[in-house]
Amino acid sequence: MTKSTTSAWREARRQSARESIVDAAWDLAREEGLLMWSLRDLATRAGITTPTVYAYFDSKHAIYDAMFGQAATDFAEYMARPYDVEGSREQLFVYVRRFFDFCTSDVERYQLLFQRTIPGFTPTPEAYAPSVRALRTLGQVLAENGISEEGHLDLATALIGGLVSQQISNDPGGVRWMRLVDEAMEMYLAHCQTSEAGHSPTSRSGRTTGARG
Amino acid sequence: MTKSTTSAWREARRQSARESIVDAAWDLAREEGLLMWSLRDLATRAGITTPTVYAYFDSKHAIYDAMFGQAATDFAEYMARPYDVEGSREQLFVYVRRFFDFCTSDVERYQLLFQRTIPGFTPTPEAYAPSVRALRTLGQVLAENGISEEGHLDLATALIGGLVSQQISNDPGGVRWMRLVDEAMEMYLAHCQTSEAGHSPTSRSGRTTGARG
DNA sequence: GTCTATAGCTGGATAGAC
DNA sequence: GTCTATCCAGCTATAGAC
What we know:
Two copies of one chain form a homodimer. Chain A is built from nine helices and no strands. The first copy, chain A, is mainly α. The first copy, chain A, has two domains: 1-57, Homeodomain-like (Arc Repressor Mutant, subunit A, Orthogonal Bundle), CATH 1.10.10.60; 59-213, Orthogonal Bundle (Tetracycline Repressor, domain 2). In chain A, helix 4 packs parallel to helix 7 (125-143). The longest helix of chain A is centred in the N-terminal third of the chain and has 31 residues, at 2-32. The radius of gyration of chain A is 21 Å and the shape is elongated. The A-B interface holds A 33, 35-36, 115-117, 119, 151, 154-155, 157-163, 165-166, 169, 176-177, 179-180, 183-184, 186-188, 190-191 and B 33, 35-36, 115-117, 119, 151, 154-155, 157-163, 165-166, 169, 176-177, 179-180, 183-184, 186-188, 190-191. The structure holds a DNA duplex.
């Protein structure tokens, strides 16, 4: 028992040290870009030396993976917060606004999570899982708005992703595309709900597979 | 006279050598990614040595600039080809399809031209100019469809860019988002033309034919 | 202009003492 | 686990002979 608590304590210390290294990595990534920091920089920033970093991570890619996992968890939590609105339509709007805000509020996090910007790096399935789960919610919210065709889901990701991308690339920190989010979703809903009218009533029973024509 | 022709000849030879270096750079960029090739690789591929590269370009960034300039010129020419369709509406569709095809047919070219993926690199104004000119055409084509609000232009760039980006990231070489392009533009036109009906002096009908004159 | 040779630096990762 | 010291590979860029 004493043994197990000691071991748990050590494990907690270890996790804490890992997290402080990952935090330092995020600081550097935000200052100099996701790719432009070195393990030397990182060690200095974290107040340790390079070999010590290797006591906690096997490689630089392992650090990216930890960063990805942290970002994915943040994303899942951010999107899963309670929706204090009534109606599936308003819920969709809140979902999209949230997604937009999450992405634009931290460009490097967005790049690591949703762009494929680090050469040779692919997140492990464990790190990737929360992100997949959170993205699946979009399909559910759309389904509750009577939208279940695969093509319309793809259209939504393109539209929302396009708004985010333009905002980040061409007006970082501004609102030029942010203020178009609601209008874009109204446009989208008007189109898809007209197009899919009659195929599925409102919620619950929507068909989600095979609809392709 | 002999002197001037000789000098022009030499200049042509020099330009030719520059182009073959840039071509080799594109080959490598497409094989290993925009960032993952070195001047050594490039020299080997071009059949010369590293110092010889420096006889034609001052730095690696100068090579990126030449690549950017070439891509921008290709883009301008690709988009400026004659539009063998009648009506401003069809013209817009052709424009967008062309843009989509140009971007998705060469991912590295797209990344260099429209993403900001090379650290520390900004294209010179001369290299950038053709791209700006070609992009301005979108505004004109939209205006001929009765769409002139700034926000609606931004909405178009977000929508089109989003489709391109999703296609490249999530279904490279496929058609999953390509086949949504026309539908997306119909959705867009239905929204914007309704929204701007009456505001715009150029067009007030939803479906214009031959407004270009 | 083209080469050989190399400077000068930075990167990720390791050995081994403590 | 943490350090000092270092390895080794890669990079851009340059010097200087021809």
